Amino acid sequence: MKYDFDKVIDRRHSPYSYSMKWGTSKLVSEMVEMQSIPDDSIAVYTADMDFRCADPIIKAMHAVADHGIFGYSIQDEAPRYYEAICGWFARRRNWKIKKEEIVYINGTVEAMRQVICAVTNPGDGVIIQKPVYGPFSGAIEYTKRTLVNNSLVEKADGYYEMDFEDLEQKCKDPRNKLMFLCSPHNPVGSSQSRISGFLISARPIAVRCCCPPDNWLGSLCWCS
């Protein structure tokens, strides 16, 4: 199926856009430090694509809307929901998962908060690697944990890489119980493939640190 990636869709002035990226809300003005995005500017401050959604998705949403009733819905009444998730991971990641292993949660950032609360206590250290997606810090602060920064190192060629010596020291600290790995890294774009080797070689150290990957941008690396 071919898609038109050249068509420009006006998201500034459409009455149905409700766009954070192109909007004029207080949140937008605080993020970009201006009242609105000028017409001669391009907004690139958030991960929001301006391509039209794929037709199969639009058709599926129309089918639900045409049904005309929007009562309480649950995933267990929609077996295709689980089939789609399991199929996607099997095709794209060669990862066979079962329906019973899927837990629904309302958003990735909320999932991060839940993980923090599940495996750490208030005051425990949570390792992240700045510069990194802002809500990583927010999730740690919101749950009253201690933010521990294992800063990425900028090289002469402009690329960033991990500081493994510093990471090892931070993993040795018994006060640090969790690490959030962003791969591919947002915003620097690097794929943190060497982390798996580090965790294997440093297993006696890293075993104390639960290390769930943030992989919501993984398709940028894995798509053929």
Automatic annotation (TrEMBL):
Its cofactor is pyridoxal 5'-phosphate. Its EC number is 4.4.1.13. Residues 55-190 form the Aminotransferase class I/classII large domain. It holds the Pfam family Aminotran_1_2. It is an enzyme of class 4 (lyase). Gene3D superfamilies: Aspartate Aminotransferase, domain 1, Type I PLP-dependent aspartate aminotransferase-like (Major domain). Keywords: Lyase, Pyridoxal phosphate. One of its GO terms (molecular function) is cysteine-S-conjugate beta-lyase activity. Belongs to the class-II pyridoxal-phosphate-dependent aminotransferase family. MalY/PatB cystathionine beta-lyase subfamily. This is cysteine-S-conjugate beta-lyase. It comes from Hespellia stercorisuis DSM 15480.
